[in-house]
Amino acid sequence: MKHKCLYILLILTSQCSNAGTISPQPPVYSQWRNLYIGGNIGSVWGNARSKLKIANDSADSYFLPANVSGISSSGSLNMSKAQLAGGAQIGYNLLIKSRLLLGLELSYDYFDFDKIKGNTFYYTTSNTPYYLTTTASIKQMGTLRPRIGFSFNRFMPFITGGVAATKFNFNQTFSEPPFSLVTTRFNKIKYGWSLGTGIEYACFKNISLKMDYLYTNFGSTSTASNLVGTGIATGFSNILKNKTSNVIVQNLLFGINYHFG
Question: Degrees (nearest 5) of the Cα angle 153, 159, 160?
Answer without folding.
Answer: 125
